[in-house]
């Protein structure tokens, strides 16, 4: 099948590479000319394990362009994978989607399946359908399908090739597009969940909101455990054996970040408020998440009431390991707060960099450089490199002895064994 993927970001690029690997001819289009040029040279502008190799493997079936018209004309299926960021009031900014719709309305002349991959609020795909008709596109010339994406950065290919489900939202009477979607993904083993357009949109938001809720829930429990001297890991092990709960996504720490959880939970809150529903849980989830960094700072102040001039090594800048993505990274929120308190921060991340420079912060190319003469080290992202760090060497390099584990990823006993002092929330 000839497929056009609009947007060459995390989702668009991964989707394009996977579709090419499934045997389709894929045109991946992005308005960012620099990005397209580097992709055409074989460079991958994001760090995602295995993606560079997959793009290279499928280079015969995968091309990149910054002019959508030709690509749209040659394709029978269009995937929209542009960004849907949050506006200041939390609602989703659909400007990029809107501009794609305008382009499609002007360009489509034969039957095309328009698939929305981007995460969009309930009602958006119905709106896309109506907008295309309003713009003069004949209803027989297109179908709109919602096919939300559930990949995680850092394991995007595994998540796409072995998705636990493929969600397809479509109009009630539209069997043609369902058949096409099943054909596109026929080589994948994943089960299909077929629902309405808004049903698919709600599955995506509910999934992210539920996962974010698990994190804020366990962060709240960790706070209570901390005050009673209970190890949070024992609690997670205990509850996680119940299959109704499961042990997954219950790692407490400085909170969730990334390009999706923060914006999607806010967007769902906004969608509820628009219908006069007070989403109490969603609001609490966000409030807890926003205060996690403060919790760790309060702990740090127990040892260093005055942070001014303290040399603090912060290990981790990315919002999670195995990605260079720093969008809404709690590690950066922590660095900013430490900077405001006058600390001297030495940051290191294996892949990510600070998007803008922050006062009092020096970024290092190696972990050892960041650790040298540090009064305290804070683990802000749970990269393997930090989990497997040589603690004896860490002790030798540091001036002080405090290790603050803001991701619960070190073994407290191993840290204590080398003469370092371990501090975390509900881990002893
Ligand atoms: N990043 C992730 O892990 C996941 C993201 N999503 C959703 O997928 C969507 C895309 O997310 P990302 O890939 O992270 O975004 P991104 O911001 O990394 O990439 C979006 C790309 O679209 C391009 N673009 C914008 N307008 C365009 C237009 N009119 N024509 C062509 N290209 C255009 C931009 O230049 C950019 O390269 C969002 O709705 C997001 O919520 C869903 C699941 C996972
Ligand atoms: O819509 C999206 O963009 C995606 O959002 C998340 O994926 P992602 O943001 O890549 O990363 P996650 O692994 O979910 O982690 C999100 C944040 O939660 C934190 N987290 C995760 C798990 C956990 O137990 N504890 C915890 O604090 C991570 O450190 C990170 O900051 C979802 O897991 C994907 O299913 C979804 O497709």
UniProtKB/TrEMBL annotation:
Name the InterPro entries for this protein: 6-PGluconate_DH-like_C_sf (IPR008927), NAD(P)-bd_dom_sf (IPR036291), UDP-Glc/GDP-Man (IPR017476), UDP-Glc/GDP-Man_DH_C (IPR014027), UDP-Glc/GDP-Man_DH_C_sf (IPR036220), UDP-Glc/GDP-Man_DH_dimer (IPR014026), UDP-Glc/GDP-Man_DH_N (IPR001732), UDPglc_DH_bac (IPR028357)
UniProt binding sites for NAD(+) = 30, 35, 84, 119, 153, 263, 327
Q: Which GO terms describe its biological process?
A: polysaccharide biosynthetic process; UDP-glucuronate biosynthetic process
Which SUPFAM superfamilies does the entry mention?
Answer: 6-phosphogluconate dehydrogenase C-terminal domain-like, NAD(P)-binding Rossmann-fold domains, UDP-glucose/GDP-mannose dehydrogenase C-terminal domain
| MF terms in GO | NAD binding; UDP-glucose 6-dehydrogenase activity
Catalysed conversion reaction: UDP-alpha-D-glucose + 2 NAD(+) + H2O = UDP-alpha-D-glucuronate + 2 NADH + 3 H(+)
SMART domains listed in its UniProt record: UDPG_MGDP_dh_C
Give the top-rank taxon of the lineage listed in the UniProt record for this protein: Bacteria
Q: What class of enzyme is it?
A: oxidoreductase
Name of the protein described by the UniProt record: UDP-glucose 6-dehydrogenase
The record's PANTHER family line, in alphabetical order, gives: UDP-GLUCOSE 6-DEHYDROGENASE TUAD
Keywords for this entry?
NAD, Oxidoreductase
> What's this protein's family per the entry?
Belongs to the UDP-glucose/GDP-mannose dehydrogenase family.
Q: Which NCBIfam families match?
A: NDP-sugDHase (TIGR03026)
User: Might you give the EC number(s) for this enzyme?
Assistant: 1.1.1.22
Q: Which residues form the active site?
A: 260
Short name of any one Pfam family annotated for the protein? UDPG_MGDP_dh
* Residues annotated for substrate binding in this entry: 150-153, 204, 249-253, 257, 320
Q: Write out the pathway annotation from the protein's UniProt entry.
A: Nucleotide-sugar biosynthesis; UDP-alpha-D-glucuronate biosynthesis; UDP-alpha-D-glucuronate from UDP-alpha-D-glucose: step 1/1
Could you tell me which residue ranges the UDP-glucose/GDP-mannose dehydrogenase C-terminal domain spans? 313-412
What are the leading ranks of the lineage? Answer: Bacteria, Bacillati, Bacillota, Bacilli, Bacillales
